[in-house]
Amino acid sequence: SGVCNALSLEIKASPKVRAFVGEQVLLKCSFKSSAPITESLLVDWTYRPLAGGQMETIFHYQSVPHPTTAGKFKDRILWLGNVANGDASIAIQSPVLSDNGTFICSVRNPPDVYHNIPQTVLVVTERGLAFQLSSAALLSILVFLPSALVVFLLLVRMGRKFRVLKEKGKCGYKKSSIEVSDEPEPSDTAGCGGKLKEWCLSCVDTDEEDPY
């Protein structure tokens, strides 16, 4: 019976959590107990600095949450758990670089008081840029950005040529003085009327040659 009780309470926690300075971070902890959840259930979160040293209790729960009232985590621990659902998670508000270290979630639910001891390593870093790019995303941008730029320039150039051809096709278009053409210069009556006149003249023309 003692062995069964020792193995019946299981705790799970994230082995490693990353956070950014000043941004709230969640430390997840869940548990399963064979015994019914009662007011005797206890939750304790302890912390050991990255450089080592003694463990310190930063949070205690028994019926109601009791965040620490002293030390570096004073007024910065937020209870997010729900013991009825097997959740004993907490959050750290405004994390700083000195918060780096190991956090341990401990749960006791008499008669289940023995359990595994999962540890969560918190790594707090400066965010730096407003966003971070993975190496794969950065490589993709470096490869596809020049190609996209070339395609865009080609589309712009084709659009300009299309507009020029469209303007030339309009009735009454006159060539610029700098354009070179083998065709005779149009008369002052060039335009829709001039073209109609030339067409009419070609209609009345015959293939007979004038006599000498």
Key features?
three-stranded antiparallel β-sheet; single chain; about 210 residues; about 25% helix; disordered C terminus; 2 domains; six-stranded mixed β-sheet; 11 strands
Summarize the topology:
Elements: H1 2-8, E1 10-13, E2 16-20, E3 25-27, E4 29-32, E5 42-49, E6 56-62, E7 64-67, E8 77-79, E9 90-92, E10 101-108, E11 119-125, H2 135-169, H3 192-204
Parallel strand pairs: 2-11
Antiparallel strand pairs: 1-4, 3-9, 5-6, 5-10, 6-7, 8-9, 10-11
Termini distance? 137 Å
Order of helices and strands: HEEEEEEEEEEEHH
Shape: elongated
Mean pLDDT: 80
Helix-strand category? alpha+beta
The number of distinct helices, counting runs of at least 4 residues, comes to 3
CATH topology of the largest domain: Immunoglobulin-like
Just give the CATH class of the largest domain: Mainly Beta
Q: Approximately what portion of the residues adopt beta-strand conformation?
A: 25-35%
* Widest sheet: strand ordering: 2-11-10-5-6-7
Helix content: 25-40%
- Largest sheet: number of strands, sense, barrel closure: 6 strands, mixed
Question: Which residues sit in consecutive blocks of at least 5 with pLDDT less than 50?
Answer: 1-7, 206-212
Rg calc: 41 Å
